[in-house]
Specification:
The chain is globular, with a radius of gyration of 17 Å. With about 140 residues, it is mainly beta. It folds into two domains: about 5-55, no CATH class; about 60-140, YopX-like domains (SH3 type barrels, Roll), CATH 2.30.30. The longest helix is centred in the C-terminal third of the chain and has 5 residues, at about 115-120. It has a six-stranded antiparallel β-sheet, with no helix packed on it. It has two helices and eleven strands. A hairpin with a 5-residue loop joins strand 5 and strand 6.
């Protein structure tokens, strides 16, 4: 089974937090979304867990795939292939898997989508690279 982890933007600092996702719904406070990061000090081998309250709109799951630079690919990432095609990583309930929703020219994102896995299995020479994400770099898709 692949590695299960999430990311989300810390509401206080605006920085990305990576780790386990927990959702809590309380009657009076509404809902809260947390990322628990497991951190290991490489020198001392000590470990600890930190808790971040994150914005639910920024939560994304790890796809289990890394790009050509060995960076993790998450839901909401903007990727580029060898031919400069730009797309967004999305989860498709219909296809029950990760898809790339491609941008075509200067038009909006097209509905045509391709499974993320196809790039690593079927087209190994066509490598994806994460160039940003929809939260920090929306201009990559909007222009």
């Amino acid at each position: 089974m692949g590695e299960i982890k999430f990311r989300g933007k810390d509401k206080k600092t605006g920085k990305w937090a990576y780790g386990s996702y927990v959702y809590i719904k309380e009657n009076r406070k509404g809902e809260q979304h947390f990322i628990f990061e497991y951190i290991v000090n490489e020198k001392t081998k000590d470990s600890y867990t930190t808790e971040c309250v994150v914005s639910n709109k920024t939560i994304g799951r790890f796809t289990g795939i890394r790009d050509r630079m060995e960076e993790d690919i998450y839901e909401g990432d903007i990727v580029c292939d060898n031919f400069c095609n730009i797309g967004i990583i999305v989860y498709s309930v219909h296809f029950m898997g990760w898809r790339i929703r491609f941008k075509k020219g200067r038009k909006d994102l097209v509905e045509r989508s391709v499974p993320v896995e196809i790039f690593s299995w079927v087209y190994p020479k066509i490598a994806l690279e994460v160039i940003g994400n929809v939260f920090d770099n929306p201009e990559l898709i909007n222009h």
